Amino acid sequence: MRFLLRLVVLLLVLAVAALAVAYSGLYNVAATNQHSRLVQRFLMLVSDRSEEHHSAGIVVPDNLQDTAVIHLGYQHFQEMCVQCHGAPGMERSEMARGLNPRAPRLVYASREMPPAQLFWIVKNGIKMTGMPAFASTHTDDEIWAITAFVKQLSTYDSTSYADLKHKWAERGESMDMDR
Prior knowledge:
Elements: H1 2-24, H2 37-55, H3 67-80, H4 82-85, H5 106-112, H6 115-124, H7 140-152, H8 158-170
């Protein structure tokens, strides 16, 4: 019983301390100031576990290797993603360099992230990171197309990515999304 009482008191003290820090305004939330390593690791843990939990059970369609699906994903990627995430041979936009946390380089993230998890992130976004939710502006098929293209990103270098851009532009295919 004594242990339980001490535990409750400790939790109350921690809660009061957290509220004191929050109300004091001492924690700097400016995007120009990095989180402490401990806070950053905690937030990444919460994000990673949430993504894994909420993407479990999402059925991945069989057509993610289809050229037409990848092409549609490329178009949406160019329109919606490249500004923040960059691409092979393309830097992030000026605006994106001011994000904190920075948007990950999807060339690297796409290698290890399962398609269902990537789909969930694109569809739902990530709070307080600048990653928008595309669920209200894109169909699931369009989001799967973005997922399909992002899963292919690691296969391109700067030259092959530029060639891809020129190849589809030469075919007369517009980058406008009619949205």
